[in-house]
């Protein structure tokens, strides 16, 4: 005789089976999720650096030992012969221009400030009379001027290159202490009596002349010749047409290359390039490194890369000289060369010479 199983017991067993299966499935899902969310163990920084990702890496620059320093010395060719029997063990030739680090300057200006017109008509007469009056009137008195270079005969080769030796401007002190430095800009045909005289007095003289055969020549104990020409721009190495002028430099570039931070005297006879060179010295703030200026200016034509009407050219000349005055340079000597043609912008007017020699002193020079 078969007994019937109670209906409540079968339903309870089925319910327990389903609940157990759901619990097992939930545990399985929890384990899988835990495995998927966990990552590799994090390494401690004490065990070493974090590995770098694969790929090309730049090599690290070698670190110089502490206290080490780099020193660069430039030796140049001397005009004096080596002693007989000299070899590699002899005394090295002196260096004229060992670089001492680049000078820091302000950013260059792009143009000078033109002075107002001399008169409402903006005519050549107005501009020329103002300009000639300006260069013929000294602005400061100098009681002691060097006269070794004054012409003693009728020869036109010698010119009155004068420097101011008043104690208040410091040049005489620098000469006595053999710490004077003079830069001379010119051509091979120029008379060098002034340079030789200043070198004999104790100045370190550097004459820049593109006609010199060697790059650097030590003519005497304190007189150097350099095969370089001073320009108002540096040649661009990528332009083939300018490779012919590789010996051309701006004065500021030469100061950086030679490591010279100051020039006590700058003498220039540049045959009508003086206006653009002077403009470059003003725009690049090189003037503050110069104690005295001696320039020969030429008035028979506008000069290299100076253009415009005659009145605007003279206005440009005048504005350049006014910039010198604003930089605290004062004219202490003016010489009108009567041996040169009496021409002013190709005209025989105003009783003007085509050539003047002007000397300025930097009143803030120390």
TrEMBL record:
Residues 1-33 form the signal peptide. Residues 163-299 form the Methyltransferase domain. InterPro entries: Methyltranfer_dom, METTL24. Keywords: Signal. Residues 36-49 have a biased composition (Low complexity). Residues 36-102 are annotated as: Disordered. Residues 50-65 have a biased composition (Pro residues). It comes from the Eukaryota. PANTHER family: METHYLTRANSFERASE-LIKE PROTEIN 24, METHYLTRANSFERASE-LIKE PROTEIN 24-RELATED. This is Methyltransferase like 24. It comes from Sciurus vulgaris (Eurasian red squirrel).
């Amino acid at each position: 005789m078969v007994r019937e199983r109670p209906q409540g017991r079968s339903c309870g067993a089925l319910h327990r089976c389903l609940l157990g299966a759901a619990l097992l499935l939930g545990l399985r899902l929890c384990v899988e999720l835990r495995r998927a969310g966990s990552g590799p163990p994090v390494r401690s920084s004490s065990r070493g650096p974090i590995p770098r990702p694969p790929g090309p890496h730049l090599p690290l620059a070698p670190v110089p030992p502490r206290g080490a320093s780099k020193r660069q010395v430039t030796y140049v060719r001397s005009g004096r012969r080596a002693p007989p029997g000299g070899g590699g063990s002899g005394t090295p030739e002196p260096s004229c221009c060992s670089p001492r680090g680049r000078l820091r300057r302000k950013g260059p200006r792009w143009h000078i400030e033109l002075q107002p017109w001399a008169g409402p008509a903006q005519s050549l007469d107005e501009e020329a009379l103002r300009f000639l009056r300006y260069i013929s009137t000294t602005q400061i008195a100098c009681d002691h001027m060097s006269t070794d270079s004054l012409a003693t005969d009728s020869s036109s080769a010698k010119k009155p290159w004068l420097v101011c030796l008043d104690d208040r401007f410091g040049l005489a002190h620098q000469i006595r202490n053999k710490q004077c430095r003079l830069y001379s800009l010119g051509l091979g045909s120029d008379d060098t009596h002034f340079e030789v005289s200043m070198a004999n007095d104790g100045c370190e003289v550097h004459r820049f002349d593109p006609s010199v055969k060697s790059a650097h020549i030590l003519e005497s104990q304190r007189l150097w010749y350099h095969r370089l020409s001073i320009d108002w721009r540096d040649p661009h190495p990528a332009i083939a047409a300018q490779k012919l002028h590789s010996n051309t430099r701006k004065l500021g570039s030469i100061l950086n290359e030679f490591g010279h931070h100051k020039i006590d005297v700058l003498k220039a006879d540049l045959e009508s390039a003086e206006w653009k060179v002077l403009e470059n010295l003003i725009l690049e703030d090189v003037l503050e490194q110069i104690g005295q200026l001696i320039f020969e200016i030429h008035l028979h034509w506008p000069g290299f890369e100076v253009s415009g009407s005659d009145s605007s050219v003279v206005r440009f000349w005048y504005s350049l000289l006014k910039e010198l005055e604003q930089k605290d340079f004062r004219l202490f000597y003016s010489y009108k060369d009567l041996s040169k043609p009496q021409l002013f912008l190709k005209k025989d007017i105003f009783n003007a010479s085509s050539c003047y020699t002007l000397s300025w002193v930097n009143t803030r020079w120390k």
